[in-house]
Design a protein that fits this description.
alpha/beta; Alkaline Phosphatase, subunit A; Arylsulfatase, C-terminal domain; 2 domains; four-stranded antiparallel β-sheet; about 30% helix; Sulfatase N-terminal domain-containing protein; hydrolase; metal ion binding; Sulfatase_N
Length: about 450
């Protein structure tokens, strides 16, 4: 964009969206026409990964362009370091109207400038709205699966709240209102849907959109599970007591939640069109992390390194600047988004960002690119699961604090070309000895050069 035509930013994010639960990612059962349209008008990244599979740390990684070990927000419930600059602060300083609408999952009240967001509309506002409307509480009032089905110890079923009184509908409406108010000025708005994260509670008609018996479960929903994997049994346990029928029922509601989000994204995109803003608005859709979605017999997420929770959808659209209907298969990271937004908008961001701008890939250029991505969940020097993943191989290391020292408790290695569902741990297979050693070394090199912030005291 030229200096005379400031670029708007519409960053749409969901929570816990498995990349396989999208039509444009090859799923012929889930209905996502509006996100499919966005992909047909923009660039879809098939190999995008979060840098940590947990809500707050991942969101802060997106905002700062840094790994969680560097920005220091290691876990949900801790507070972020206000001295780490965010991409939104740069847009605010450049005169943009800024807003976070939805689930930001950060400590806005403890940060003097709220990370650069002028407008903050979140779950507290939604709760006040529901109370004022005397409307059904979406996660309380509904028809639910039995109590022993509790992904993340939460309910699954049909909410009695209509779309207008559901978080997806409410935050979409607030985003549309923000766009209308700021149509004549540059804006940077984060629209963050709390769903399809648990509780999985779509409204009608989406709650009844899918017939469980007609849905296809992942091949690894039931097999000889590797219970030596630290955290796998615990993740299954907090999911509930599933059989095939309940996996299908849960999947039907999960797909319903995804389709409800898609409907509301459609309303937002339609509003952009009506306001004449689509041509000068960079639209991003992604998720903070994935969802087990029945894979390995589990739902939600855990301290694991499976693609189900590390791989995320990523779609980017900017008419005329980026080609339409392009699919890129390079390994990209959520920390790449901050430098991408800044470069595309012609702004210079803060130093210390660890991601790489996706601009070359978005504009169709062929350039040398990374061959490995890194992701971690937990606190380094204490309790952490680390992943090094190439296009076709994955190495996972489980470090745990034992007797005052961090020790590697378990390792995994997957040939993703032959075993895309990660069902065969080849760590002891001598045929892969050199490849395992190579990824071990790449992970060790990354640890050595990636600064680690102090561990939290709370």
């Amino acid at each position: 964009m030229t200096s005379h035509t400031p670029l708007n930013i519409l960053f749409i994010m969901s929570d816990q969206h498995n990349a396989r639960a999208l039509g444009c990612y090859g799923n012929g059962e889930v209905q996502t026409p509006h996100l499919d349209r966005l992909a047909s008008e923009g660039v879809r990244f098939g190999q995008a990964f979060c840098q940590t599979g947990q809500c707050s740390p991942s969101r802060y990684s997106i905002l700062t362009g840094r790994f969680s070990r560097t920005h220091g927000l290691y876990a949900n419930g801790n507070h972020e370091n206000p001295d780490v600059p965010t991409v939104v602060e740069t847009f605010k300083a450049a005169g943009y109207a800024t807003a976070t609408i939805g689930k930001h999952h950060l400590s806005m009240d403890r940060i003097p400038d709220r990370h650069g967001f002028d407008t903050v509309i979140d779950e507290r506002d939604f709760s006040s709205f529901i109370q004022a409307e005397s409307a059904p509480v979406y996660h309380r009032d509904g028809h639910w699966l039995p109590d022993f089905i509790h992904p993340g110890r939460s309910r699954v079923g049909r909410s009695h709240a209509g779309n207008a009184h559901h978080p997806s509908g409410y935050f979409a409406a607030e985003t549309i209102a923000f766009l209308r108010r700021n149509r004549d000025k540059p804006f940077c708005v984060w629209c963050s849907f709390p769903d399809p994260h648990t509780p999985i509670a779509p409204s009608e008609p989406w709650a009844s959109m899918y017939e469980p018996d007609k849905l296809t479960l992942a091949p690894n929903v039931d097999y000889a599970f590797d219970y030596e994997t630290p955290g796998l049994k615990q993740t299954q346990s907090k999911s509930g007591q599933f059989n095939e029928a309940y996996h299908r029922a849960c999947l039907a509601y999960y797909y319903g939640s995804v389709s409800q989000i898609d409907y509301n994204i459609g309303l937002i995109l339609d509003q952009l069109d009506r306001l004449g803003l689509s041509e000068k608005t960079l639209v991003v859709y992604t998720s903070d992390h994935g969802e087990m979605m029945g894979e390995h017999g589990a739902w939600t997420k855990g301290f694991l390194g499976y693609d189900a929770t590390l791989r995320v959808p990523l779609i980017v659209r900017l008419p005329d600047a980026f080609p339409a209907g392009v699919e890129r298969e390079e390994l990209v990271c959520l920390i790449d988004l901050a430098p991408t937004l800044l470069e595309t908008a012609g702004l210079v961001g803060p130093s210390g960002q660890q991601g790489t701008s996706l601009a070359p890939l978005l504009t169709g250029r062929t350039e040398p690119w990374r061959d490995v991505i890194f992701s971690e969940i937990g606190e380094p020097r204490h309790h952490v699961t680390l992943t090094a993943r190439s296009q076709s191989r994955k190495y996972v290391r489980f470090d745990r604090l034992t007797d005052g020292q961090v020790q590697t408790k378990y390792e995994q290695f997957f040939n993703l070309h032959l075993d895309p569902w990660e069902m065969r741990n080849e760590i002891e297979n001598p045929l892969y000895g050199r490849e395992i050693a190579a990824l071990r070394q790449k992970l060790a090199d990354w640890e050595a050069i990636t600064p680690a912030a102090p561990l939290p005291t709370q």
